[in-house]
Fold this sequence. Notes:
Helices cover about 45% and strands about 10% of the residues. By secondary structure, it is α/β, with parallel strands linked by helices. Helix 1 links the parallel strand 1 and strand 2. It is globular and about 45 Å long.
Amino acid sequence: xxxxxxxxxxxxxxxxxxxxxxxxxxxxxxxxxxxxxxxxxxxxxxxxxxxxxxxxxxxxxxxxxxxxxxxxxxxxxxxxxxxxxxxxxxxxxxxxxxxxxxxxxxxxxxxxxx
Length: 114
């Protein structure tokens, strides 16, 4: 089935996956509605020179990495979840939209959504 992955807003500092009730949306559109949690605030986006050195040259993108991991999970488990991996669409509210821009610009997101 076609799938909508919803990314919540909250200035990338706050938020949670169940702040938007997707059940009704799913029923009315015939899609699977998935809302994921990802790291926010310092845990998701803190970037320092020291952390970057420790992690191989980059830091501050853990929240976006979590989102990519969730999309990879959907692809790996598409059959058992009844997800059509070629029909995954992202939807986001406020900073969820910012996340979508970040995912669209990341080569690591290639092929994870349409």
